């Protein structure tokens, strides 16, 4: 039990830390563009203040219920059966990880 | 007060306008309790002065509003000289903001994403009423007689109806679908009488609310219309209501001259045989295009515009375009259809000749074209260029730009001639 808990803890901390590590790869100029994409393009459905619209709210308190990986997967692959499209044609995995960390309040 | 005196050399009295909207906002800041009264006083004072200065008198027929979405602000513009007249701030979250006009074309009812409903006097550039009516809204409509304004809400769903003169609440109509859950409302439009038609996104239903007796609204419901209706339009004659379905390959259609026949499906499988492409922004049907007997619609998941036979509701043609179309809008005479696109093709605009059904020009006026609005007779079209922070005006005959106005992250453009059109 103890061991399982430790392993789970390690996995969780890796997943949480991972977007931050990936984010280091993104240039400041690209980061500004991604921030803008969140406001403007994500904002079309999720609201510029992220309180939701046709899409669900993207507030920190909503996203902390999810793992960083789940957020990254949703950004890249979309949510089939809903209007959330896969953004992998426009964003790299590192960029999606940066956005996930940004939305989850780990980056400014 | 000296500043409000007549200056014949000033063009169109624009300076007086600014001064006097400034007066209104000063009044708001200093005496909040008397805000509305003071604003009205300032407006009356302003009108008096405007009448005294005849060059400043003007109608509203060539006016409009441009949403500056990131700043919660509106630009008051005029389309005879392509200029900005005033700025109206303090409107909250205007991402995906929409508005309708009073029948006298003086007041705009602005629907903000944050649930704010604001009444704006475009002659004075002042907010004359504002209520926070829900947590999250998408749009609204004004009744045929101009007395009621209905707002379609995402959170908690349903519609709320207000007195257009006072913004007093008139009715609150939840949208609980057949599944027993509250539903987001989209595609609201005005019908004849004090009626509104709208669609329940989650439940897949079309409802008509009759407010002839506002204390006891009468509802007519059409259920099982299809999966995830994302937007709807009503034809300008008020007869046909079409709800686009995101979850299915087809469109739900209601004939309002024969409402007992119910909703039927048209254009089933318009994407059959092709894998749908990602849709990075929901198409808008509201800017629908009718040219003669044809209706032009953005295809969902395809880089195409559909041409549909109005009345028979069969597909006549489809035209390949540069990306996922968001708006397909007809020039008022129906001779051209202008199309803009979702990201990543959102810096292009294509013009289609409706007779030959060919793209005659691809324009690239700047970065991220969000919205297009024709002047009432169609000689010009205004384009909001979000990421270039400007509005560009094109001549629709030469297809050349004729004017440019700076604007902060502009999105929707709404001219006052919408006041006299059903569904707008």
From TrEMBL, chain B:
CDD domains cross-referenced by the UniProt entry: 8prop_hemeD1_NirF
TM annotation in the entry: none
UniProt xrefs under InterPro entries: Cyt_cd1_C_sf, Haem_d1_sf, Host-pathogen_enzymatic-act
Pfam families for this protein: Cytochrom_D1
Top-level lineage group: Bacteria
Cross-referenced Gene3D superfamilies: C-terminal (heme d1) domain of cytochrome cd1-nitrite reductase
The name this protein goes by in its record: NirF protein
